[in-house]
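Quick question, first post here. What does this chain look like in 3D?
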Amino acid sequence: MEGIGGGSSSAAPPVNQWLQDSSRLLQYYLDKTTPHSTYRWIGTLVLASIYLLRVFYVQGFYIVTYGLGIYLLNLLIGFLSPLVDPELEPSNEPLLPTKGSDEFKPFIRRLPEFKFWYSFTKAFCIAFIMTFFSVFDVPVFWPILLCYWVVLFALTMRRQIVHMIKYKYIPINLGKQKYGGNKSSASSSSSRAE
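> Answer (accepted):
Ran it through. Tokens below.
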């Protein structure tokens, strides 16, 4: 009995240790890239370009690309939506400011930018790997899929924009607002100091 269980149990800890070390190393590099959003997105666009070139070169895997497009559209909706949707969770007090006199509440996304980027990049990596297996190359007439995706994208974005207008929120962070104030008095006080 001891000989049967001894062989498999001795092999498990090094594999588990390797998985833990790999996970820790991946998390370390993800943490290092967090403040560099521009470079992260440039890298993702390069990866997306490589994927699109692969699909174009192979002239196949359109169903994988269609599934990728639907998944990315779902991620985009989560990125553009507020954390608490006023339509789904009605309350007595407004969750988003509706008047200029209301207290400023920052827009909190349902899907934060980093998770959006990470899921976006991971989806392209998985789709790229799928292009090396012929089982995923289902023959389809790709112009129909493209037209269907464009219509789906347009209808979904229209609904999302109507929701933004109805509840008066902008999902794009434009930074801290700067007020012009009295520029002439600021420039005249600086000229007097000279």
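The first helix runs from residue 2 to 33.
The helical segments are 2-33, 37-58, 62-80, 113-130, 142-167, 183-193.
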